[in-house]
């Protein structure tokens, strides 16, 4: 058994979690310390199965990807390929005609609340004449 601190987590873990949640407007991903694979909100590494995942700060920039098989409940969510190499489903803040695959986005300054999807904003202003 691991020695635990006052939070009931292994010693040293609470300090890492406190650092991660210190600024809620930042987006963190995980990097496996064994195989260096990047993941987002996982308990195990998707490649090697290790539980030794280290949190890292994302730059918050990415590109909207194609979405397939979208249910009505998830119609406002878009997959965003972040610069670090992981994919996260986000709400996109911008004019509906400008939200499409291939558009660059940046993490909004709104707080990232655990359990809720991050919000991203378009990097460039889109005019109505660029509508397809």
Q: Describe it for me?
A:
The protein is mainly beta. It has two domains: 1-57, no CATH class; 60-132, OB fold (Dihydrolipoamide Acetyltransferase, E2P) (Beta Barrel), CATH 2.40.50. The chain contains one helix and eight strands. The protein has one helix at 13-20; strands at 28-32, 38-39, 53-57, 61-64, 77-82, 87-93, 104-107, 119-122. The strands form two sheets. The chain has a five-stranded mixed barrel with strand order 4-5-6-8-7. β5 (77-82) and β6 form a beta hairpin. The longest helix is centred in the N-terminal third of the chain and has 8 residues, at 13-20. The chain is globular and about 45 Å long. Residues 22-53 form the ChsH2 rubredoxin-like zinc ribbon domain.
């Amino acid at each position: 058994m691991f020695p635990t601190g006052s939070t009931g987590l292994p010693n040293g873990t609470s300090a890492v979690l406190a650092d991660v949640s210190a600024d809620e407007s930042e987006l963190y991903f995980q990097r496996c310390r064994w195989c260096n694979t990047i993941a987002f909100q996982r308990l195990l590494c998707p490649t090697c199965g290790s539980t030794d995942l280290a949190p890292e700060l994302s730059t918050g920039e990415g590109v909207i990807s194609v979405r397939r098989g979208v249910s009505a409940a998830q119609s406002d969510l878009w997959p965003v390929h972040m610069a670090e190499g992981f994919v996260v489903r986000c709400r996109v803040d911008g004019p509906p005609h400008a939200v499409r695959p291939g558009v660059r986005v940046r993490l909004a300054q709104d707080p990232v609340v655990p359990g809720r999807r991050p919000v991203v904003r378009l990097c460039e202003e889109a005019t109505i004449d660029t509508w397809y």
